[in-house]
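Exercise 3.2. Students should predict the tertiary structure of the chain below and write it as structure tokens, then compare their answer with the key that follows.

Predict this chain's 3D structure.
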Amino acid sequence: MLSNIHLRNLLDVDIHFSKGYYSTDNILVSKGDRVHTTLLSIVIFFGVVYTVISLIQQYHYQAFLSFSCGVFAFFSWLIHRRGYTLLSKLVNFTQLIAFIALMFYFPSSPYGEHINDSVLAFYVPVLIGTLIAFQGKQKVYGLVLAVIVIFVISFLILTDIHYPEHPVLQNYTGSNYDMLFNILGAAVATFAEVAYILALNDRLNSSLVKTNHELDNFIYIVSHDLRSPLLSTKGLIDLAKIKIDEREQVLKYLSLAGQSINNLDHIIHEILTYSRNARTELKEEEFELKDVVKEVFDGLRFSAGSGFSFLEEYSGETKIYADKNRLSTVLRNIISNSVKYKKKDIDNPFVLLRFENNNLHCSFSITDNGEGIPLESQHRVFEMFYRGTSSATGTGLGLYICKEMLDKMNAVFAISSKPGEGTTFNIQLNKTATSLAKEKKEPAFNTTKQSGSPTASVKLNEQLNSIQGFSSFNQAG
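Answer key:
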């Protein structure tokens, strides 16, 4: 357990942003939940550390109480894992308040009953924790526990009650190591809480800046990309009214109006896709990857034309456990770009999807021999509404949606491109304990499928070797 407690994990403030909560209460509760998991890690860590320290000092009661505190914290963590987050918080903070009071009451020292009074310093991080872990509608629980903490501190200090386990052998002289350990431990715990809150606040500010930027871009697309098809459709309908007696002209105008409406529908569909990704949680399931790839390829064959080749290569088990809808959308957007930006002056345009499944992750590599992306645009292709080339006709949302979905799936992704030669998109999905348990263990096998131009396979390696350069786009968290 201790080996998993790292500063990187304690300050990982991005995880709760993937849940898609938008109301104020849900955002605050989600933030409090994330803080609580950090506090559980701290409590378990200190429970183990102070058990060892107390055993070395031969403070029997403190060793037992510290160990019990760590056990109850671990029990709270298990409750949290089962989804009962509020109950987990209540169990954890209640046991902390009780065990710190018991450590004060049982000094367990032959050097006097006041030797362990500094244990009350741990009520400081507990008090802070109750105020930051309970947020939104749960805030009342935090306030009640904070009042209890203050009452218990006041009661223990004023009554100064202790259970003398040992007769006092001598007054303690020199450095009070108990005070040193307790104050240092309380300071470290408080620092960890404050550091996490500052990191969380910084992440919230960054998210707010990003949201404002996207809102500005959205206003632009509403005023331009959404309004233009509407104005175009209105103008074409007006022309059709004027030419009402000329059947061919009317049909031509109505056909053009239909195209404008289709463009408008495509834009709205992409906006809705982005919105659904932000608002919905991951839905992981087991599925056959080949079926998803076939569906994507079949949906693009008509627009690609007969000379375009769709190629597949698989290594390892192709039945995987992931978010099927999001992965399908990502593959469709990337492969559709390969079709959309194919080179017109070559005989063998293609897109190749390579898949590799091993014990740790699933890797995708999508390569084409199309127009490529200009060097100055490669670091911006994942921005909202950005169009990388002058020939781009889309909304600039496709790769942005891919980035957001891959972020949601905690995937690592990168793009490399050479103008005039092609583009490669790499994706790595790391397996979780759940996915490892769900996937069936079957013998690995390799297959390659090809359709379209027969010359594609002959020149494939030459085309792939010509694509160089690597620009990473790794998500936060």
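Discussion points: The first strand starts at residue 284 and ends at 288. Residues 1-25, 440-460, 462-477 have pLDDT under 50 and may be disordered.
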